[in-house]
Amino acid sequence: MGVIGTLFLFRKPAGHRVWKVADLLWIVLGGFGAFGAILAGVYTDDSSRIERQIDIAYAATTAFDRDAARFRLHYCQNDINEPVSVLCDKVDFLSASTAGNAELPLFIEVTNQVSPLQGLRFVLGRPPDESAEMEEMVDAVDSFDPDQFLAFAAFDEHTLEAMGALRAELPSISGDFQILAQSYETLISQVRTLKSEWEFLQENAFILLLQIISLSLVSFAAPFRLGKSLVELRAAR
After folding, report:
1. In 3D, which of 1, 39, 33 has the Cα closest to residue 217?
2. Which whole-number Å values give the CA distances from 166 to 71, 86, 87, 173, in the listed order?
3. What parts of the chain have a pLDDT lower than 50?
């Protein structure tokens, strides 16, 4: 549209009022485009944070799963006394709450696949099947609530009593469970941070639309500014 409009304006001589208006149009829309580019740059930086947070959450998940598996292998396979049995039951409970039957792995996986930058495609369109699948994945992330894991405290009254009973006779078991509990708490903390990053980007996804509008307006105005320069060069010969 900008090129077509510029072709019509070539009938006007250099210094004509329409070329001054075209120059003003370029300045105004160019400034708006620069503003949109700055906002988009900030948004892109924020989107890279969620990618880093996904990696951290994956690492925390892996560390917890590894610690839980090692604890069960070392202490929960043979004949065990009552305090160790309490800790083993707690490890099984924490593992089930985050891996076996919960949405935690789903949330991390879906967040990794559904980047808010995919919002650019709503302008270009996407196949119906893919669009429906993407909406379901976004809904799964939005509905996930990390705070539900607050009910699964790594330390409770029975767990602390068992750890206290083991510190004198089997301090290694108590120490290993302490490490496992810290891994669990780190995991929940990182997932909660990931959820916060996701919500922030979703709330500011309109910046992507602003960026597209800015680029479109700048692209529309650029031919007018180029046409003004060409007309002035031709008049200067």
Report:
1. 33
2. 15, 11, 10, 7
3. 100-101, 117, 120, 122-124
